[in-house]
Amino acid sequence: MRIALFTETFLPKVDGIVTRLSHTVDHLQRLGNQVLVVSPDGGLKEYKGAKIYGVPGFPMPLYPELKLAIPRPAIGEELENFKPDLVHLVNPAVLGLGGLYYAKALNVPLVASYHTHLPKYLEHYNMGMLEGVLWELLKVAHNQAAINLCTSTAMQQELTEHGIERVEVWQRGVDTELFQPELANPEMRSRLSQGHPDSPLLLYVGRLSAEKEIDRIKPVLESIPGARLALVGDGPHRAELEQHFAGTATHFVGYLTGKPLGEAFASADAFIFPSRTETLGLVLLEAMAAGCPVVAARSGGITDIVDDGINGYLFDPKDEAGAIKATQKLLAQAEERELLRRNARQEAERWGWAAATQQLEDFYRSILEMDTGLKAA
Fold first, then answer.
1. What is the mean pLDDT of residues 177-185?
2. Which of 7-21, 44-58, 121-135 has the lowest average pLDDT?
3. C-beta of residue 217 within 8 angstroms of C-beta of residue 274
4. Peptide bond just before 12 cis, omega within 30 deg
């Protein structure tokens, strides 16, 4: 198959969507498909055999790490030369609307996938009053697709309730070769704890942005005597968070990738994830693959991953003391914590990227067969 993938974000940016897409592109190519990635220009021309067509863009006002790329006629020329069998829109917003237009113009099937819970993000940027309008816009765009993929059963239900049709779950995936419990080491633990390796070590990995609600980790940190917190990642909310955590034992590590990221997960005592806007929470699976017990809000797609008391702990997102209680319980019981580590790894081993991409390819094939039947009729 020849697949044109339109995405609002791609390499070299680092986030959960890019992680999923980069593994997906790799495995689609391995399966013998040809992929064209249309994305905001990040300087790359090729990835794992797939061509990247970069569209010039400008930083998004509220989130400068993201680029807004405006569709242009040259995209149509690129698609005509590529001759896609189908077009897949990832989080269609601005560039994705161009993909929608060209799919219709070329008369090829359209697939869309939903990864970022944008309507729920609005309240964290003082624009909650626009949530209803955004849902309507999303519905119009997504209902042009032959199938809409999402990353959890919770999101499948919510999208359906908001009028988005033909919604299926695209199963989760994680790199169990990169993220392993065996990567734990004293050097990384000392680095994350700023020279206090014997102290309880809490970890967060992800975007430093308002919707991740990282500020809610502070009372958890302060409730545990001698605890240290390592925040891995970067983002538009970093300056505010540095001010918020001033005077606490918090280390802003910056970005980690590859083996060092795996070492960070494996070397921590607990992964704290307070976000209530997750469609999946891929980073949770990475922590679990590395054997790091997780404490997370019982919200969105997280409940598809974390089985409370079995491979991690969930807390009521409305209970301000919930995360504190769960983390204290986790750290106080060494034997149970080791059982959670083993169970977390066991759960992650069920979800490799090869299987997730094979499922996606099956979705593609069923849509192409349906389209061929409709055209023949």
1. 95
2. 121-135
3. yes
4. yes
Strands 63-69 and 57-60: antiparallel
Give the rounded percent of residues in the chain with a pLDDT score beyond 90: 72
Query: Which of 377, 300, 364 has its CA nearest to residue 145?
Result: 364
User: Does one domain contain both 128 and 94?
Assistant: yes
Residue 181 CA to residue 343 CA, distance in Å, equals 12
Eight-class DSSP state of 8: S
Provide the b/e sequence for 64-73 (b: ≥16 CB within 10 Å).
ebbbbbebee
- Total domains in the chain come to 2
CATH of the domain at 143: 3.40.50.2000
Q: Are residues 12 and 157 in the same domain?
A: yes
Give residue 259's pLDDT. 96
Question: Would you tell me how many other CB atoms lie within 10 Å of the CB of residue 353?
Answer: 20
Instruction: Tell me: pLDDT of 170 over 70.
Output: yes
Residue 47: count of CB within 10 angstroms of its CB: 17
Q: β-strands 2-7, 34-40: how paired? A: parallel
Distance (Å, whole) CA 9 – CA 178: 23
pLDDT band at 21 (very low <50, low <70, confident <90, very high): very high
My answer on whether 149 and 216 are in the same domain is no
The candidate with the shortest Cα–Cα distance to 248, out of 308, 207, 181, 194, is 194
Residues 214 and 121 in one domain: no
230 and 126 in a common domain: no
Q: From residue 323, give the alpha-carbon distance in Å to each of 9, 14, 216, 221.
A: 31, 27, 9, 10
Q: Which two tokens stand for residue 287?
A: 């922590």
Are the CB atoms for 348 and 285 separated by under 8 Å?
yes
Higher pLDDT among residues 304 and 71, named by residue: 71
